[in-house]
Amino acid sequence: MRKSRFFGVLCSFIPGAAHMYLGLKRQGLQLMCLFFFPIVISEFLGISLVFFALPIVWFYSFFDALRKLNGEEPLEDHDILPIKWVVDRDFSIGQNKIIAYGLIVIGGIMILNRIALPMVGRYLPHYIRNYIQTGIVAVLFIIGGIKLLAGSKVEKGADQE
Predict the structure, then answer these.
(1) In the chain, alpha helices (H)
(2) What integer is the mean pLDDT of 76-84?
(3) Which of 65, 78, 119, 158 lies 20 to 30 Å from 55, alpha-carbon distance?
(4) Do 82 and 34 meet the contact criterion of CB atoms below 8 Å apart?
(5) Nearest to 85 by CA among 106, 70, 101, 99
(6) In contact, 41 and 50? CB cutoff 8 Å
(7) pLDDT tens digits, residue range 23-40?
(8) Can you give the residue ranges of every domain in the chain?
(9) Distance of alpha carbon 6 from alpha carbon 69, whole angstroms
(10) Non-local CB neighbours of 160 within 8 Å, separated by 6+ positions
(11) How far apart are CA 61 and CA 59, in angstroms?
(12) What gap in Å lies between CA 65 and CA 73, rounded to an integer?
């Protein structure tokens, strides 16, 4: 069955829709989830930090759909890279430190945004509360970066011995 190129291009503006239109249901669903999941998470957690992923997913989906509409890529319905990375992971103990650190940081930010700052906010002016919030999140990122750098040095030392 011949697909309308015009309708395919229109569908490509919604991440995953053009892939589904082309019959790539798995890729279409994965791209839709990767695009809309950060929106739901940010609304639930009350942090807009996850919005950085939206333009990346949108542009990837748009240009990938256009390449497939033009016939530059084969129409094979396989997992896209971020999903393939998660599916192919070995979820044994000690192998997923980045995911663990990410979950800890997200939990800390949730506690900060939803519990600690509203309680402190009653006693402090708004601008001081914003400074405290930004400072705590920045310190968490700095500590996370230092931990990751220290972890990579230890692993290199263990490999050399």
Answers:
(1) 5-11, 17-21, 25-45, 53-69, 81-87, 97-111, 117-121, 126-160
(2) 72
(3) 78
(4) yes
(5) 99
(6) yes
(7) 888 888 888 888 888 888
(8) 5-87, 97-160
(9) 10
(10) none
(11) 5
(12) 9
Amino acid letter, 104: I
- Dig out the tokens for 132 from the structure: 């405290």
* DSSP classification of residue 50: G
- The contacts of residue 24 (CB under 8 Å, 6+ apart) are 68, 75, 76, 77
Q: 96 phi and psi, to 5 degrees? A: -125, 50
Amino acid at 32: M
DSSP-derived letter for residue 47 is -
- Amino acid residing at 64: D
Crossing angle of helices 53-69 and 25-45, in 10° steps, is 170
Tokens found for residue 67:
């390449």
Rama region for 76: left / alpha / beta (φ>0; ψ in -120 to 50; rest): beta
- CA-closest candidate to residue 57, choices 38, 76, 77: 38
Q: Which two tokens stand for residue 134?
A: 């930004």
Instruction: In whole angstroms, give the CA distance from residue 47 to residue 60.
Output: 24
pTM of the model: 0.57
